[in-house]
Amino acid sequence: MTRSVRIHDFGDANVLRIENVEVGEPGRSEVRLRIRAIGLNRTEITLRSGRSPAKPPLPTGLGFEAAGVIEALGPDVTGFSVGDRVALVPAYGAAQYALYGEAAIAPARSLVMIPDDVGFTEAAATWTAYGTAWGGLVAVGALKAGQSVLIPAASSGVGLATIQIAHRLGARPIALTRTSAKANDLRHLGASAVIATTEQDVVAEVKALTGGKGAELVFDPVGGPEFATLAKATAAGGTLVVYGALDIRPTIVPPFEIFARDLAIRGLALTALTRDDPKLASLKQFVSEGLVQGAFHPTIARTFTFDQIADAHRFMEAGEQIGKIVITL
């Protein structure tokens, strides 16, 4: 038996229960991990709260991102050994594997080796953030050197990864944040410019920063009424990539902006990319090269112990962090 988080009802962080469960042996193309760190993501909070369109049968485990040590291999798993230190690239649903636990089954195709000089906490903070940012900027957004990208919710783990990937591509990351309280931190973490959306005219600021043309790419996890403002700040022929819905209000799509200036709106789900073998391989290669060359370095906002999992969820929901939240075991 091992301790694992399960939910019996959808709701606030109080529904998270740590229970004793039997993990069992890995099946074909699976491994069993001793979990050392868990990366927290909005995906799990959306599912836990009941806001997600995907509602698994209850009770259910949770988990989207983790790092640990291989304890057992499925019968057909090759390329890995018991004792290997590995992290997971999410290519599955947030309730498909119970990664919120001291041990868990995980798919072998999602594994990446952790370099000797990288700790479990950093490894668990890497692959969702950089994988999502790679998907938005490279796989879907086709961002090019010299172009600008608008990054709402820029202080999140994905936002900070987006800043670093934009620099690696030779593009200009423009960070959006609600107030100026995080502006200096965002500049220190690589943002070329910072716009406080509740204090400044977003469209006017973007136009001033881009010589009047607007940003070629918008990478938005928020949606809501302000999506219309982002469309107005997008360059003619530009693309808006939507990968979240943090604002629970209806999203406003301005039709005249879209058709008059030939804007494209694309959706992005990381797992839709990573379920494709060639795309998963490309993601692993791109992020691994950035890590080895020192271009990518995840920012850890705060760590919590496993017994503090509900507190970690509450901390993320407060929205004050800069970087990733990680659970350590």
TrEMBL record:
UniProt keywords (A-Z) are: NADP, Oxidoreductase
Q: Which Pfam families match?
A: ADH_N, ADH_zinc_N
Coiled coil where?
none
Where the record annotates domain Enoyl reductase (ER), the positions are 11-327
Q: Which CDD domains match?
A: MDR2
Name of this protein: Zinc-dependent alcohol dehydrogenase family protein
- Source organism phylogeny: Bacteria, Pseudomonadati, Pseudomonadota, Alphaproteobacteria, Hyphomicrobiales
